[in-house]
Amino acid sequence: MNSKTFKKNFLWGGAVAAHQLEGAYNEGGKGLSIADLMTLGSNKKPRELTKTVEKSKYYPNHKAIDFYHHYKGDIALMAEMGFKAFRTSIAWTRIFPNGDETKPNEAGLKFYDHVFDECLKHNIQPVVTLSHFEMPYHLVTKYGGWSNRKLITFFTRFAHVCFERYHNKVKYWMTFNEINNQTNYDSDISVYEDSGIKFKAGDDKQKIMYQAAHYELVASSEVVQIGHAIDPSLQIGCMLAFCPIYPATSKPEYVLFTKRAMDSRLYFGDVQVNGEYPNWLKTYFKNKNYNLDITGKDLEILKLGTVDYIGFSYYMSFTTKYTNHMDYRESKDLVRNPFIKISDWGWPIDPVGLRYALNWMTTRWHKPLFVVENGLGAYDKLTSDHKIHDDYRINYLREHIIQMRKAVTEDGVDLIGYLPWGCIDLVSASTGEMKKRYGFIYVDEDDYGNGSLKRYKKDSFYWYKKVIATNGKDL
Ligand code: BGP
């Protein structure tokens, strides 16, 4: 047992996102979000987005695990594990059903009052993401999602309402979940989720992505300023998907290409932390003749709205082959790393990569870091006596916490907390499945919404409770 460990007020807890667990997709005046149009599908197939909900299709997020009606019991279970923090998101469509209204929906606001009050009752700090893969679908159809500058106004209005309403209850905020995932614009999935943009044939996808990302970055910076003006004690962070990228061989060209690949995935952090675009990217825009809509006022906003901390998800590392171009494409350039095992869903399992991530970001950005997602999506088996023996999940988390502890105690990384993903089973973001489970708490429901919705404690529930009680000493 290592006697050196995490700081005293380290935020142990777990993370979820509104659309993946709340269900009640049309209750309390909620509007239709992009996530409500997601059908069951595999990682490789883009999600099917239809204009309306079709009766014959099953949409997993409509019911999800019905947290909307179960939140009290669920939060009590989290409290039983000793959670200090619980990350969730606010569904934009509960507050502004269409996204472009000026008056918020009171029933939606009340729901989150109840959720946050319930957390606080148990001494659990809510950690809130404003946008987690689910903009109002109306903003997609009417405005073309984030390809339209108008979205900045709608999003900042939404954020303003949330800060005003909840700033006494919520101290930790994040603007856009995994804002950098849209660099994987070859996959329609991430484009839909993050930007609400559907490409047409012949589009310069990369240019469109950079433009949409710019509007999001401006919106994010404005939101940081709005939040600080309402309450200077708020901690407002960005949220990045961090996947270290390793070169497949030590050939210098590979190493250089890999560096560029990381820079292009993570430039969002440069803008959100440093308040400006990195030089390599400005040069890239120029060389490509992109002439993006980036105004002088935008650049001022970026400068003034830098984040307080960096929230990030860590699931895996990537390994890439050299393709002799400066346009890194996740879908084309990745290879299997012979030193790394993969999960049931093909995600590389690399605990050391988490220590690498923590060090990489500390050196580059000098900000407190917050692991707001990490975990193993796996098949679980409910035994006849209602147990779930998920030693594979415990092993995964243990190995990652060990690396995280080393980063803190040996490398001096400033780490706020650790919030493993899907602390209660929920709908998978990439596949819509229930059977891809992450939780400490099992929910009796299958991919098609059949099941009792009963909650059961997995072995990892008791293990994590002990980890929290010993502040990460007893793993
Ligand atoms: C992240 C998302 C989460 C979550 C997680 C696991 O990218 O922020 O919403 O779902 O990945 O992914 P999946 O659900 O596809 O297994």
From TrEMBL:
<protein>
    <submittedName>
        <fullName>6-phospho-beta-glucosidase</fullName>
    </submittedName>
</protein>
<dbReference type="InterPro" id="IPR017853">
    <property type="entry name" value="GH"/>
</dbReference>
<dbReference type="GO" id="GO:0016052">
    <property type="term" value="P:carbohydrate catabolic process"/>
</dbReference>
<comment type="similarity">
    <text>Belongs to the glycosyl hydrolase 1 family.</text>
</comment>
<dbReference type="InterPro" id="IPR001360">
    <property type="entry name" value="Glyco_hydro_1"/>
</dbReference>
<dbReference type="Pfam" id="PF00232">
    <property type="entry name" value="Glyco_hydro_1"/>
</dbReference>
<feature type="active site" description="Nucleophile">
    <location>
        <position position="373"/>
    </location>
</feature>
<keyword id="KW-0378">Hydrolase</keyword>
<keyword id="KW-0326">Glycosidase</keyword>
<dbReference type="GO" id="GO:0005829">
    <property type="term" value="C:cytosol"/>
</dbReference>
<dbReference type="GO" id="GO:0008422">
    <property type="term" value="F:beta-glucosidase activity"/>
</dbReference>
<dbReference type="InterPro" id="IPR018120">
    <property type="entry name" value="Glyco_hydro_1_AS"/>
</dbReference>
<dbReference type="InterPro" id="IPR033132">
    <property type="entry name" value="GH_1_N_CS"/>
</dbReference>
